[in-house]
Amino acid sequence: MAKKKPVRKTVKATPKKKNSGNTKPAEERPVILITNDDGIMAPGIMNLVEAVKDLGKIIVVAPDKPQSGMGHAITIGHPLRLQKVNVFGDIEAYSCTGTPVDCVKLAVDKILHRKPDLCLSGINHGANHSINVIYSGTMSAAVEAAIESIPSAGFSLLDYSIEADFSGARKYARIIVKKMLETPQDKHTVLNVNFPPLPPDHLKGIMVCRQAYAKYEEDFMERLDPHGRKYYWLTGEFVNFDKGKDTDVWALANGYVSVVPVQFDLTHYDLKAKLEKLWK
Amino acid sequence: MAKKKPVRKTVKATPKKKNSGNTKPAEERPVILITNDDGIMAPGIMNLVEAVKDLGKIIVVAPDKPQSGMGHAITIGHPLRLQKVNVFGDIEAYSCTGTPVDCVKLAVDKILHRKPDLCLSGINHGANHSINVIYSGTMSAAVEAAIESIPSAGFSLLDYSIEADFSGARKYARIIVKKMLETPQDKHTVLNVNFPPLPPDHLKGIMVCRQAYAKYEEDFMERLDPHGRKYYWLTGEFVNFDKGKDTDVWALANGYVSVVPVQFDLTHYDLKAKLEKLWK
Q1: Which 145-164 residues of chain A touch chain B by CB within 8 A?
Q2: Measured between CA atoms, how close is A206 to chain B, in angstroms?
Q3: How many contacts (CB atoms, under 8 Å) link A and B?
Q4: What is the mean pLDDT of residues B183-192?
Q5: 3-state SS assignment for residue A97
Q6: Could you give the number of structural domains in chain A?
Q7: Does residue B249 lie within any of the structural domains?
Q8: A109 and chain B: CB distance < 8 Å anywhere?
Q9: Is residue B232 included in any domain, yes or no?
Q10: Which range among A203-212, B1-10, B55-64, B104-113 shows the weakest confidence by mean pLDDT?
Q11: Nearest CA to CA, how far is A207 from chain B (Å)?
């Protein structure tokens, strides 16, 4: 599970055309798949495309509608559609009727017909730190890519607003993507990157962290419909149970961009060792 | 994150009525929440209720329709409804319009008004070993419970058929639930339990395992609708990349009930240590 490969694919064939200027021939540029969970029209994905579009050949495949909170959902019971759209200028882009995870699967199998060199997801409108990584469609798309042996990163800004200022997020998303392209990555790498809602010159830098044990305490709002029947809206209060200074929640509260490397082997090895003794 | 508490809640008040026979007073019995992702009418959940109904006070809250592949999806954009239903005889049961994770959240906040002592999910029609743990609504419900500090287990049978034989699964689900009730559990315990499709006397016993690196290789089926437009169905071939004899896939192929303890701290600590050096 831990073979290294450089993200930047090296094509050994000599370019046939002379390469004038600083643009590499298309076949030498890394292929970067971009998706999100807020939908293809969200400002966050526009900002991510703008931040990295000169770093590789970009393909966008993103949901046609918001898919927040979809986690690692896939579509089994009905078919999916893709629609080529023109929303990022010259960049090839498709909207998809499925979930963020469906977008990654379909992009690889039916659009790219190969694994991209990198997959990026976001920039999400709202935090995906701590336990949110599990509920997040943004992060699940990135995790799906890593399962498929495509190094990936999900990006989220701690601002739900549609008019959020993405300038700090853009600066650091670009720095992180360049780092990923310039150094060999384990093919199962997934980074969960969150940005405090600060302008670029107020951000203190990048902090590599662990996932905080912090979560929402649910409190459903109960209402009556016009026919007198109850219905419930999910609400909740965010509570941090984790006092560590090495967590994503701490980093974000202190002005750092948090980077949590994520795994998809969910085995709890300590508990496994205990149960092997207890259940003999 | 690792405080121990006994699953069986001890209520110290002396029972007011004399307890004749072997049934404990209701207030001393552990409260067991049961859910699934195949929907409240699926044979799998009926079999799980039957297997454990005398081990505690059972409450069922399950989706009103199949929710396979929903992963850890939650419902944010629209409200949820609960409907009291009479499908398990004397046992209190509700169908819910949401996902399996929604069912757990709603059950705790609006039905039980307390944390149950144990949460069980399944028995799923179909395998949730290896990477399936990430896509599975059955397992996500169990993981949600553990996030909420409720020890839990998800159960799945390697047979998708609606007429599947659950007799072996029932026998071992009961054994495992008894083990969980009889020994103190970490409040964040989640067990991913899978059963080979074998009758009780052909099962070799329980094997505590790690999650195999095995996954589906996607291959979408492309079709044309009556208007000539393309649509795609998710299909795929299961491939095991993991040759270990300590995995859930190995256990199941060799006639054992597989038990993988699951964690929800997704931090990849090895990669975190590497990045801390590399990105300094």
Answers
A1: 147
A2: 8
A3: 202
A4: 94
A5: coil
A6: 1
A7: yes
A8: yes
A9: no
A10: B1-10
A11: 8
pLDDT tens column, B138-176: 999 999 999 999 999 999 999 999 899 999 999 999 999
Question: Which candidate in B265, B274, B276, B277 is best for mutational testing of the A interface (most A CBs within 10 A)?
Answer: B265
Q: Could you tell me if residue B21 is inside a domain? A: no
CA distance A86 to A103: 17
Chain B: nearest CA to A74, how far in angstroms?
A: 5
Confidence (pTM): 0.89
Distance CA B275, CA A149 (A): 19
Taking the Cβ of residue A201 and every Cβ of chain B, the question of whether any pair is shorter than 8 Å is answered with no
pLDDT tens sequence across A121-163: 999 999 999 999 999 999 999 999 999 999 999 999 999 998 9
List the single residue in B71, B79, B266 with the smallest CB-CB distance to A262: B266
Contact A263 B260 (CB under 8 A): no
Whether A131 contacts A211, CB under 8 Å: yes
Supply the CATH number for residue A169's domain: 3.40.1210.10
With an 8 Å Cβ cutoff, are B133 and A266 in contact? Answer: yes
| Residue A179 in tokens | 């780092």
Q: Which residues of B touch A37 (CB under 8 A)?
A: none
User: By the CB < 8 Å criterion, does A140 face chain B?
Assistant: yes
CB B31 within 8 A of CB B117: yes
Q: Is residue A117 part of a domain?
A: yes
pLDDT for B4 beyond 60:
no
| Structure-token pair, residue A153 | 């990163």
- Tokens representing B252 are 């199941």
Residue B107 belongs to what domain range? Answer: 27-211+244-278
Contact with chain A for residue B237, Cβ under 8 A: no
Cβ of residue A85 closer than 8 Å to a chain B Cβ: no
Judge whether residue B256 has pLDDT over 90.
Answer: yes
3-state helix, strand, coil in chain B (%, to 5): 30, 25, 45
What confidence score (pLDDT) does residue B23 get? 58
Is residue A40 classed as helix, strand or coil in its secondary structure? Answer: coil
- The letter for the amino acid at B100 is P
**Burial code of B43-62, b = ≥16 C-beta within 10 A, e = fewer?**
bbbbbbbebbbebbbbbbbb
8 Å CB contact between B236 and B183: no
